[in-house]
From TrEMBL:
Biological process (GO), any one: malate metabolic process
Protein name, as recorded: Malate dehydrogenase
This protein's record includes keyword Cell division: no
The organism's place on the tree of life at top rank: Bacteria
Lineage: Bacteria, Bacillati, Actinomycetota, Actinomycetes, Micrococcales
Species name: Diaminobutyricimonas aerilata
């Protein structure tokens, strides 16, 4: 069997540099051989070729091939996994509508190329921000690909929430389960500990810590890292992308769930058709939203606030003709 065809966009960027070597080493798909297809804008193709040379130089036993493209159609040809990392960053003085429009110009054609050229079983993870709405744009340009094959990354927020809870309680990270990120991958996200467990037992943490410390720390962690490091969180974002795809393909553990932005089917009062983060499990074939969780008034208001932002983004891209 030839290796899995994996297309990575924005391959010459910071996240790409932290991501590709781990994919090639087997961190994402285990012992499965991989064929990497790197997409970049023409100006960054040279840098992507440099990264490809380094990948070759690692002599990874699982890496069958690495190719660089500046054309989306060719890059997504036969793709079984697509990691959409490249996006247009917000420039000085750029309004949100400008950002959405600039990203629409990237994610609409990429969705169309996936529709036309990717493998029938393609799975697409959108990392580039605004990730939820970029995933919505890409999915809506891929009418022949089931919408549940597109997801947006909130796994880094999820991992940050797990780590913060472990630090607060003194538990080991591996003993923390059932943490949830709801809503948008933005500062309105709702990291939720109401159903969290440590070593299988419900967690008692005081609500003032949750509201005044935990939630803002998780939601603003990206900004704190930029301030401390002078650059955005690339390695932890790449790690989260690896975790996301690995759990999607290999399945989540039986007593836990993870968080991912998926197309809402109306669950938990989140309007159908927007890409929102939910608690999800996978049996290896696809994401399934965890059902039956109780949502109290506090959680309701936080989820509703983040969903309101997603609806605004959806309405903005709709009025721009992007979906
Ligand atoms: P990064 O590799 O650091 O980031 C790429 C994207 O991931 C950004 O949109 C970034 O959002 C997002 N992201 C999501 N989660 C996180 C997180 N937790 N921490 C940091 N970033 C996160 O960007 P670079 O500028 O280094 O590289 C981008 C590359 O993409 C460039 O090489 C560029 O040429 C390429 N590109 C490729 C395209 C294509 O293949 N067609 C199209 C557009 C760009 P945020 O901006 O909010 O940090």
């Amino acid at each position: 069997m030839p290796g899995m065809r994996i297309t990575v966009t924005g391959a010459a960027g910071q996240i790409g540099y932290a991501l590709l070597f781990r994919i090639a080493s087997g961190a994402m798909l285990g012992d499965e051989p991989v064929r990497l297809r790197l997409l970049e804008v023409p100006a960054a193709v040279g840098a992507a070729e440099g990264t490809a040379m380094e990948l070759v130089d690692c002599a990874f036993p699982l890496l069958e091939s690495v190719d660089v493209f500046d054309d989306a159609g060719t890059a997504f040809d036969g793709a079984q996994i697509a990691l959409l990392v490249g996006a247009r960053p917000r420039g000085p003085g750029m309004e949100r509508s400008d950002l959405l429009e600039a990203n629409g110009a990237i994610f609409a054609p990429q969705g169309a190329a996936i529709n036309a050229r990717a493998a029938d079983d393609v799975r697409v993870l959108v990392v580039g921000n605004p990730a939820n709405t970029n995933a919505l744009i890409a999915a809506s340009h891929a009418p022949d690909v089931p919408a549940d094959r597109f997801s947006a990354m909130t796994r880094l927020d999820h991992n940050r929430a797990v780590a913060q809870l472990a630090a607060r309680t003194g538990a080991r990270v591996g003993d923390v389960s059932r943490v949830t990120i709801w809503g948008n991958h933005s500062t309105t996200q709702f990291p939720d500990l109401a159903h969290a467990r440590i070593s299988g037992e419900p967690v008692a943490v005081d609500s003032s810590w949750v509201e005044d410390d935990f939630i803002p720390t998780v939601a603003r962690r990206g900004a704190a890292i930029i301030e401390a490091r002078g650059a955005s969180s690339a390695a932890s974002a790449a790690n989260a992308a690896i975790d996301h795809v690995r759990d999607w393909v290999q399945g989540t553990s039986p007593h836990d769930w993870t968080s991912a932005g998926v197309i809402s089917d109306g669950a938990y009062g989140v309007p159908e058709g927007i890409v929102s983060s939910f608690p999800v499990t996978s049996d290896g074939t696809g994401w399934r939203i965890v059902d039956g969780l109780e949502i109290d008034a506090f959680a309701r208001s936080r989820i509703d606030a983040s969903v309101a932002e997603l609806l605004e983004e959806r309405d903005a891209v709709r009025s721009l003709g992007l979906i």
